[in-house]
Amino acid sequence: MSWDVNKLAVREYDYIKGSTVSAPERKSGVRKQNKKYKQIQRRKKINNRNTLLRNRRKNDRKYILTMIVIIFGMGFVTICGDDKVYDMQTKISNLSTQINQTQEENEALKVKLLKFSALNNIQEKAGTKLSMFIPNKEETVRIDFSQNYFENLKSNNSDNSTKKINLFSKFINLIKQL
Fold first, then answer.
1. Please, which residues have CB within 8 angstroms of residue 121's CB and are 6 or more apart in sequence?
2. What is the pTM of this model?
3. What does the DSSP assignment read for 130-150?
């Protein structure tokens, strides 16, 4: 087996060429970290923690803002609904007062109607103001309505209506011909 000096130096010794008589220093398996490397690692950890904290804070802010928007939205919807209910209640109270007023007016009119519709009151007013009196049997006239006394009036009305219909139908026929 032949040993290549260059390969050996790369693996285990600090020198590439040289005498094998002197005792070369071997590299230790554990390498000591530089202070700069440690500082860089600490800075990375701190930066990672800071970015994580910033991201968490941003997410927390977003969450809080969305919850605030949702709460204000629901509050607005609730207030709008309460406003509609309040409007309906005021309309109902106005209608109930109007109903009570009209009922009172109706009762007052019924009292007046009963007062004026009394038979004695009617007879008094008819006699005093209108000089009317109750006729006797001799003064009354009886008319028999079993016969048709108004035949001429009915036929005249029907003739007028047929003339109107005829004029209207003529007008429609003229429009259709155009």
1. 115
2. 0.38
3. S------TTT------SS-S-
Average confidence (pLDDT) per 10 residues, the chain, 178 residues: 50 54 59 76 90 94 96 95 94 96 95 84 84 83 76 56 68 78
**In angstroms, rounded to a whole number, what is the distance separating the alpha carbons of residues 141 and 43?**
129
pLDDT at 80: 93
Tell me the residue type at 82. D
**CA-to-CA dists, residue 165 to 84, 156, 158, 175, 177, angstroms:** 54, 14, 11, 15, 18
Count of residues making up the chain: 178
The Cα diameter of the chain in Å comes to: 177
**Bridge partner list, 13:** 26
Sign (positive or negative) of CA dihedral 61, 67, 71, 74: positive
| CA pair distance 12, 63, nearest whole angstrom | 58
Q: Contact 67/74 with Cβ under 8 angstroms?
A: no
34: helix, strand or coil? coil
